[in-house]
Amino acid sequence: MADLFTVDQLAQMLDMHPRTIRRYIREEQLKASKVGGEWRIRKEDAEMFIGSKLDEIKSDAMDDIQAFIEGKDSVVEGQLQVCTMLDCYVDTEEAVHISEIIMRHMNQPDPSRGKAKMQYFFDDNEQKGRYIIWGTPAFIGKVLSAVGEAVKK
User: Helix-turn-helix domain: which residues (predicted)?
Assistant: First the structure.
C-alpha cells in the first residue's frame, strides 16, 4: 500500500486542501481510483501530477519561505520557529521514501511538533527531492535525524 496515497496524504504533501485534490481528480488532471469508497492515487500518478505542477509548487513554496523570512503568515506557533529546506539528490523512488519518512513524523501525535507544515516536490531535471519543513526546533531536529538515519542505510 506504500505505492498508494490517500487524498489527505497527497494534499498534506502538497500543502493543498483535500477538496483541491478531489477537484483535480474530478477534472481528470490527476489520475485516481476508488478503493473501498475512497480515492487512492498511485505514486506514479502523483509524481506525474507533481511534475506538471512543479513550477506552481515551486513558486508557492518560495512565497511561503519569503513570508517566513519577513515574519508574515507564520504557520508555526510558539516562541521558537524553524523553516528548513532539505535538498536530496536521489532518484524518484528514494525521494518518495524520504517524503514518507517526513509524513510519518507529520502525522504522529507529538507535543513537540506543534503546528507544522511540509512541502515536497521532485525536480526530474536536477534529480533532486526538495523538502521544505516548518515547525519547532525540536520537531525539525527529529525529522532531519530520521531522514539522515534512513539515508545512511
Answer: 4-45
Q: What angle do CA 101, 119, 11 make, to 5 degrees?
A: 90
> What pTM did the predictor assign?
0.60
φ, ψ at 133 (rounded to 5°): -130, 130
List, for residues 56-69, the tens digit of each pLDDT value: 766 776 777 777 77
Distance, in Å, from the CA atom of 148 to the CA atom of 52, rounded to the nearest integer, reads 29
Highest mean pLDDT among 96-105, 127-136, 140-149: 140-149
Contact 13, 99 (CB under 8 A): yes
Domains of the chain: 1-52 (1.10.1660.10), 73-153 (3.30.70)
